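I would like you to sit down with the record closing this message with an eye to the fold:
=====
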Amino acid sequence: MNRINQPDRISVDSFMDTTTESNGEYFTFVNHAPNTALVGAKAIQLLRVSLPYTVLNIPSYQLVFYYHKLATATSVPSGTTLRAVRLYPHDYTPPTGFTAFTLNAFFQTPQELVDALNAASGVGGDNVTYNTIWGNDVIFAYDAEANQITMRGTTGGSFYCNAGYNDPFVLASQASSAVLILNQDNSTSRQPSTPGYTLNLRVGFAMSGTSRPRGAGSNLVSNLCANLTGRPSANALDIYADSFPCLNYTSNIYFYSNVVGNSGFGSVNKKNLLCVVPVSVPLGGIITYDGHSGPCYATKVANEVYSVDMEMRDDANMPFYLPDSANVNVELSILYE
């Protein structure tokens, strides 16, 4: 057999995939075997992964904050009480003259996120025509000593509570056209979203809305009041988040590749898992992952490999996009008979 078809080590590089150049951003790339296929491979092991962590803090599918505006202190949240404050994706391009939007951005501090939320809930921060459940009656604040974000309502005589990420009315809203984006050509599209992922989680309101809030006493109003008390608060009273702001895009980057086949399964039962790369650098840094921690070979390998493709996903199993300027490199070790 011609040993030129049996390299022991190969490099897979996103810059070598010229198809990504026309996309603006990418989460998949492919390298084709030079001249002929790799022949007779029996096992593949990851050696190294390197990539720039050039993303924003908050994904485009997680930009809507939900809460309920209630008539009384004992009112139970419903679909008609649901309100939303949202940010537009950072790459949004409006039609000429349209200014009623607030963009997602790189937030270096929780206070910067709070400022954006207050802009989005304030006058001119959104448009009820496109965000039909827009809530322009809440104010957010950052308690630097406690490292927590608070929200409070501003309409006299009303009561407020944040909504959980698993609130059935939130899930129904995400599946509907309640929150729309006005495109550059004046058409509309739905705000990007993923069930179970809301801006509430990034702010620090981490309760589900379907389980009993921890700390709730016998005067619990509803699990749908997803705060520590399980009760709505009167306007002008701060509602503290139960957790802390999360300004890290993802904790892990999942790499999937055609060359490993059924050798790897992701946590969502997705096949072709090559490796899980932990994010160990701040935004803007270079992630370097060493696969030499121990022998872990993928053995369900095709006898002939004509191309190697890579797919990157985040903790929510959503595509992990990088700009075309960001190069990803993966090195693989190949064993033969």
